[in-house]
Amino acid sequence: MAHASLDKRPSARKPESTGRPRAAVLLPLPFPGPFDYAVPPTLADLQPGDIVSVPLGRRTETGVVWDQAPTLPPEFMPPPMKPVSDGRLKPVIARLDQPPLPAALRRFVDWVAAYTLSPPGLVLAMALRTATTAPTAPATCWAIATPPTDLRDTPARRRVLDIASSDGPLPAAELARRAGVRTGVVRGLADAGALRAVVLRPPPPFAAPDPTYCPPTLGDGQGEAARSLRTLAGAGGFSVTLLEGVTGSGKTEIYLEAIAACLERGRQVLVLLPEIALSAQWTGRFARRFGTEPALWHSDLGPRLRRVTWHAVAEGSARVVVGARSALFLPFAELGLIIVDEEHESAFKQEDGVTYHARDMAVVRARLDHAPIILVSATPSLETLANVGAGRYRHLALTARHGGAAMPDVRTIDMRAHPPERGLFLSPVLTEAIQATMARGEQAMLFLNRRGYAPLTLCRTCGHRLQCPNCTAWLVEHRARRVITCHHCGYQEPTPPTCPSCHAEASLTPIGPGVERITEEARATFPDARLLVMASDTLPGPAATADAVARIARREVDLVIGTQIVAKGWHFPHLTLVGVVDADLGLGGGDLRAAERTVQLLHQVAGRAGRAEAPGTVLLQSYCAEHPVMQALVSGDFASFMHQEAEQRRPGFWPPFGRLAALIVSADTPEAADATARALGATAPRGDGMQVLGPAPAPLAILRGRHRRRLLLRARREIALQPIVRQWLERVTPERGARIDVDIDPVSFL
Ligand code: ADP
Ligand code: ZN
């Protein structure tokens, strides 16, 4: 990871005034920093972290009282805003009845903002999104008080007091009902001082997981790793550990033990998964180990559950949260352990709004909370391996599958030697293997990381290609829905009956396969097989995904056809054959991590095969079977492959051996994009150990109608990029209609 350089000693900000008491309040809006407000005498005890409402222009906004002394060195902070004189200071309106934002989370917000060069308010917005309203109004209940000596005594009053002292505190209506009186009687007793009000919060919505509920019997090689992690999680304190092990080796089983140790210590746990579709199987497994489900956090959570969960995390009643990357910004009261499962996944990189890498920021969060963090993967990223190599991260490895299950036998099918029939995409070698698998009563899977019917539609008469009107991208046919759509901007139109350019009839031809087309081929080839398609557009949510997975586990399916959603950590005990339709798919495009990512993805797909007793086979259809990626998958020797990857990136100071920042210019017109990009090029930072590549048109030169240009700043590891980029941006004023987005540690180069 690349952030050590943000950690110099902070210098205190000078107080701006010595007059009226003031508070810095950060608003969840894109301002460069907090605003000062006057603290009225009624709020004299206002503390950093308090959630307050303040005036902003004519509106009222919710914000957070921020720390006066910045937590980062000045070169990482936005230029200070002009102080407002006492006389013009507006007062804080009120403190909201909300748990305050913990100090570690406030520091984390500052840190992420400084590292990603985002306005801190936009980072705060991620932490605050749901905090502004109380979960459920606390109920007022009535309990017995010392009755005044002159209390008028009646049988009705006596019954109420009896019930209140035996069953109380109760809400007024309930108290009256049980005593068989009107609520007026209760009110009268309250007014007389014989009952006192007690505000009861609703019971915590999440039951506490029991670390002793159902511990596993650990196998050879698992016990040592589990003990090691238990010790780390039980002791607390910051550390980073890579837990590496082939698919099915029991990594999940083992990190659940670390969770148990953290729970025993009375701390909360955060588990990050790359995709929430995975959470169904995960929570089930968690429940079998701990006797109750964990709290879930992701963007599809309904507003009520979001609110309840946010508050439960803040109050500490939610002990374990499993979520997507946004869960990093939850207000944990006492975070004691973070786990990042499938740490190599690029889904951890958020690409819009605040662009941050959740795996890297999770390490920062762990450090700020003085908690251990465990990164889990069968195919760790080169970033993480480099940190292990440099001694910054610990390393635990599991080498065998649990219970003696063998690793699948991975082979390539050389498509030049065994081509499919004309117009088809499955080699006879693969179809025969599928047939044989199904004949044995076992399940098979076809993997193709491409949604829809065909990625390109071409007119055979005039050569016209169906292209998105808003993007530099082909339109993808989705035959089942009879539409062609853009996978970048969501544009869609009915599939045209004739060529839109030359109007030739029956001339539009699909080029290449998507899962729909493979499904069509599989239906024709295996007419008796029970097929199931798993793609993100055919499975509308976690529930549908869980249902599909359950059907596979119940053996209601013979052949699964899917996109990357099937590659995830599913456990399919009866699946013994995986066919990869196009193993070369991810290798094009010249992306820095194309080879690494292909190995990771395909290894993960391969890992779905043979997870129980029956051994698994993986067949990779490839036109370049001699490629190092295919060789690594066949041999299973990822260490050597990653070593070669490292040796290719090291000399040019490519990540993780150097730092990258991407500047993306986008504009209404190509002229504005070019002018802004040229201005960035002309003012590019120069110096030893750094280099600016570009400007150049982005591969997606037009996206959602915006014209895009890219520049890339590459620097040696010891150089901090943020101050350089900040100063660079200050030298350039974007043209009208143009903007510049910064992506630190870019993962996508589109
Ligand atoms: P990974 O996360 O490395 O892919 P898992 O933890 O999912 O591996 O384990 C693979 C399978 O083996 C799961 O079904 C899991 O329940 C089972 N398993 C692993 N270790 C044990 C164990 N010690 N006892 C019982 N089952 C285990
Ligand atoms: Zn588009």
TrEMBL record:
Quote the biased-composition stretches of kind Basic and acidic residues, using this chain's numbering: 1-19
Cofactor(s) the protein needs = Zn(2+)
**Gene name tied to this protein:** priA
Q: What does this protein do?
A: Initiates the restart of stalled replication forks, which reloads the replicative helicase on sites other than the origin of replication. Recognizes and binds to abandoned replication forks and remodels them to uncover a helicase loading site. Promotes assembly of the primosome at these replication forks.
Q: Which PANTHER family match?
A: PRIMOSOMAL PROTEIN N
Report the InterPro entries cross-referenced here. Answer: DEAD/DEAH_box_helicase_dom (IPR011545), Helicase_ATP-bd (IPR014001), P-loop_NTPase (IPR027417), PriA (IPR005259), PriA_3primeBD (IPR041222), PriA_3primeBD_sf (IPR042115), PriA_C (IPR041236), PriA_CRR (IPR040498)
Residues of the region (Disordered) are 1-21
One Pfam entry name = PriA_3primeBD
Chain ranges of the Helicase ATP-binding domain: 232-398
CDD domains hit by this protein: DEXHc_priA
Per UniProt, where does Zn(2+) 2 bind? 468, 471, 486, 489
Protein name, as recorded: Replication restart protein PriA
Gene3D superfamilies given for it?
A: P-loop containing nucleotide triphosphate hydrolases (3.40.50.300), PriA, 3(prime) DNA-binding domain (3.40.1440.60)
Give binding positions for Zn(2+) 1. Answer: 459, 462, 499, 502
Q: Which organism is it from?
A: Gluconacetobacter sacchari
Q: Which family does it belong to?
A: Belongs to the helicase family. PriA subfamily.
What reaction does this enzyme carry out catalytically? Couples ATP hydrolysis with the unwinding of duplex DNA by translocating in the 3'-5' direction; ATP + H2O = ADP + phosphate + H(+)
How are cofactors bound according to the entry's free-text note?
Binds 2 zinc ions per subunit.
